[in-house]
Amino acid sequence: MPSPPCAHVGAGGLFSSTSPDEASVVMLSWPISGHRTAVLGHISHRGRTMPDISGDNPYGFTMRLTEVDTTSESGSSGAPCFDGWGFSVGVLHGGDGRFSYFIPLNVVRQTLAQW
User: How do beta strands 65-68 and 88-95 pair?
Assistant: First the structure.
């Protein structure tokens, strides 16, 4: 049986051990302009910070975000990101019109455990 495009991606983190050509993902969202939207993308960077993205960090976010080469529409925040096995590996934080930025699932788990 052939391996899916993200054969080395697990649900514990977001693409920490994949090469760029193995990092194919799907985002499922419900933007204001439509519903049940599926967008294919590839990982372009695994460790963006808020200052990297916007030059500003008014809320003091410290997590590292995974950059995906897809755009996301208003209303899509919180959309799940799935790997080639169908595991949810992150949630959409936002986008800048060129890329979308996802919070890795392991960061979400750690944050929830601290609450």
Answer: unpaired
DSSP lists the bridge partners of residue 89 as none
Helix (H) or strand (E) holding 80: strand 80-82
What is the pLDDT confidence band of residue 8, given thresholds at 50, 70 and 90? Answer: very low
Q: Tell me the fold of 22-114.
A: Thrombin, subunit H (2.40.10)
Note the pLDDT tens digit of each residue in 33-82.
777 888 999 988 888 888 788 777 777 777 889 999 988 888 889 999 99
CB burial string 79-113: b at 16+ within 10 A, e below: bbbbbbeeeebbbbbbbeeebbbbbbbbbbeeeee
Give the residue extent of every domain in the chain. 22-114
